[in-house]
Amino acid sequence: MKISKIAKLAAGAALIAMTAGAVKAQEQVEVLHWWTSGGEAAALNVLKENLQKQGVTWKDMPVAGGAGSAAMTALRARVTAGDPPTAVQLLGFDLKDWAEMGVAANLNELAEKEGWDKVIPAALQDFSKYDGNWIAAPVNIHSTNWLWINKAALDKAGGKVPTNIEELIAMLDAFKEQGLTALAHGGVPWQDGTLWEAVVLSTGGPEFYKKAVLEADPAALSGEEMKKVFDTMSKLRTYFDQNFSGREWNLSTAMVIEGKAGAQQMGDWSKGEWLRADKKPGTDFVCIRFPGTQGSVLFNADQFMMFDVGGDAEKAQMKMASAVEDPAFQIAFNTVKGSVPARTDISDEKFDDCGKKGMKDLAEASSNGTLMGSLAHGYAQPAAIKEAMLDVITQHLNGQLTTEAALKRLPEAVAAAK
Q1: Cα–Cα distance, 155 to 396 (Å, whole number)
Q2: How many C-beta atoms lie closer than 10 Å to residue 263's C-beta?
Q3: What is the model's pLDDT at position 122?
Q4: pLDDT on residue 342
Q5: C-beta separation of 405 from 399 below 8 A
Q6: What is the end-to-end Cα distance of the chain in Å, rounded?
Q7: What's the CA gap between 350 and 361, in Å, rounded?
Q8: Is the CB of residue 303 less than 8 Å from the CB of residue 91?
Q9: Calpha distance 81→67 (Å, rounded)
Q10: Virtual CA dihedral for 130, 134, 135, 140, nearest 10 degrees?
Q11: Rounded Cα distance, 363 and 344, in Å
Q12: What averages of pLDDT result for each successive group of 10 residues across the chain (418 residues)?
């Protein structure tokens, strides 16, 4: 064979290899997220498998930590280096913060083609869009004001679910008498805040929650109603076990699943752990709104913000965004994750009793104006204010601040963070 012909064949082979490599790169998404617990990983696998069927390779970039603070540190490093991932799991005001930097992809064409405006609630669109442009694909709607109860422990305590704080305390006392950790809790700021915001809503109702949390009104943050909130938090602290500090949320869930603890206040992602342990609602566990909060929903929605990666990677990115909003995926994912669909046109037929309740409660709260953003999960205040409030809440819960000092410090911390 002549050298010239060999050269041509070699060049052709190289071109084929380069083309194959380009296609491979084009059909890959790199996703930064913090879904690392068992139930969360199982839910995420639904999306991975969906994309794999479309020929899109998933490159995982998991960062442990339930509220995503560690993930944000990793993301800043990537963006600063000029190498953003394809998509990032983001919450609330973090979406707005990153969009302001001009690093978001524009999903308008896809959103218009698939009619996202008609099926995604306006409360979510406020965060999924920036300057009127779609920048993120919402995966679900979580709510944080839930209480998860071990059914056997509840039955032994009389079987009555609590409807207010007084009845909650009575149930927790009964759990202590059984030799259980009455209230499983992980002592990290976002978990402290998740419990606190439920107590705020239970103590003062939705209007007080709006004043104190959504508006950060100084009078509401320092008044008599807030004193009741902090006093209740001090009381609830007495039902934790001694090893609560620093515990991950899913380990607290496991305590309730295993019958070592009676109850846990946590968002509905907790249900994913129960399901993974082959437990059934109504049989093995009971899901109720945190006592005193029925009729209101504090929401948190996981969203995948698409970063402006440009070039060949954009095709795979759009496939991922479309896959996230696919109704079949919304059902498959949320029945595993414990959340409810981000779309309002999904039937509850395939959801369990807790899922059906979650969807019904969401519809009710949305129509009544009591669907409100969670502070601890970034949908009530920007990051600086949120962190300032959580700092005071955690210090108080750990006994570093008296209630009187917390009432003084909380509005001061908010003012300093603005």
Answers
A1: 33
A2: 28
A3: 85
A4: 94
A5: no
A6: 76
A7: 17
A8: yes
A9: 24
A10: 110
A11: 9
A12: 40 39 63 83 87 92 70 85 90 92 95 95 91 96 97 98 98 98 97 98 98 98 98 98 96 98 96 93 98 96 92 90 94 90 94 96 90 95 96 98 98 97
CA atoms within 13 A on the CB side of 82: 0
- What is the pLDDT at residue 19? 39
* Tokens standing for residue 388: 């300032």
Of 40, 100, 47, nearest to 71 (Cα)? 40
The residues pairing with 150 across neighbouring beta strands, listed in sequence order, are 285
Q: Which residue has the tokens 């601040």?
A: 401
Length of the chain: 418
Task: Report the 3 state secondary structure along the chain.
Answer: CCHHHHHHHHHHHHHHHHHHHHHHHHCEEEEEECCCCHHHHHHHHHHHHHHHHCCCEEEEEECCCCCCHHHHHHHHHHHHCCCCCCEEEECHHHHHHHHHCCCECCCHHHHHHHCHHHHCCHHHHHHHEECCEECEEECEEEECCEEEEEHHHHHHCCCCCCCCHHHHHHHHHHHHHCCCEEEECCECHHHHHHHHHHHHHHHHHHHHHHHHHHCCCHHHHHCHHHHHHHHHHHHHHCCCCCCCECCCHHHHHHHHHCCCEEEEECCCCHHHHHHHCCCCECCCEEEEECCCCCCCEEEECCEEEEECCCCCHHHHHHHHHHHHHCHHHHHHHHHHHCCEECCCCCCCCCCCHHHHHHHHHHHHHHHHCCEEECCCCCCCCCHHHHHHHHHHHHHHHCCCCCHHHHHHHHHHHHHHHC
Give Cβ neighbours of residue 157 (< 8 Å, ≥ 6 apart): 171, 174, 175, 178, 262
Q: Given this model, what pLDDT does residue 264 score?
A: 98
Place of tokens 């603070």: 69
Question: Using an 8 Å Cβ cutoff, are 299 and 364 in contact?
Answer: no
**Taking a C-beta distance cutoff of 8 angstroms, is the pair 87, 305 a contact?**
yes
What is the rounded distance in angstroms from the CA atom of residue 187 to the CA atom of residue 394?
Answer: 8
Residue 138 pairs with which residues in a beta bridge? 303
Residue-level pLDDT at 67: 53
